[in-house]
Design brief:
Jelly Rolls, five-stranded antiparallel sheet, 9 strands, four-stranded antiparallel sheet
Length: 165
């Protein structure tokens, strides 16, 4: 049974001697230490800064100018954030190209920004258009097909300590 919380009107006073409502406070010590992850990265420590901000339109323009955009894979990508347990990658794919079947050891989200992609899963196909979000649990086999030129943010989160930088 849940305790009943009585809401006092502003005009009501607390009775003398009545207990004050408790304020929940965490007694756990934080395991998150801002800036610590950048020290762990040998290459590109700025990807693990305590604060990162991006103009995604400009980032996509830069991806189109990269050599990788002209290769036969038909895609270009850039890691925007890289922490020991978390990554965000901006991916740009040309129409009618694919990322071959793969799986991630962490949980994945695909935040679709523009175009249309189709995510092929073992038992279904999921179409995503701009503004949609798909989340996959760790180990789910999938491939990604760009139906038209498309851009998305790929986020991967691993359990704490499961991945070395």
């Amino acid at each position: 049974m849940h305790p009943v919380l009585r809401i006092r009107r502003p005009s009501e006073k607390r009775r003398r001697g009545a207990a004050r409502p408790s304020r929940a406070r965490s007694t756990k010590t934080s395991t998150c230490h801002p800036g610590e992850a950048s020290k762990a990265l040998n290459r590109l420590p700025q990807l693990a800064s305590p604060l990162l901000q991006f103009n995604l339109q400009k980032e996509l323009q830069q991806l189109r100018r990269k050599d990788s955009w002209q290769r036969e894979t038909g895609r270009s990508s850039k890691t925007l954030a890289k922490y020991p347990d978390f990554r965000i990658i901006l991916v740009l794919m040309k129409a009618k190209t694919q990322m071959t079947e793969h799986r991630a050891e962490g949980r994945v989200s695909i935040h679709h920004l523009r175009g249309t992609i189709r995510v092929h899963l073992p038992d279904q196909k999921v179409n995503l258009s701009a503004g949609q979000l798909l989340v996959l649990d760790c180990g789910v086999l999938h491939n990604i097909e760009a139906v038209e030129e498309s851009a998305f943010l790929l986020t991967i989160a691993w359990p704490k300590g499961a991945l070395e930088s």
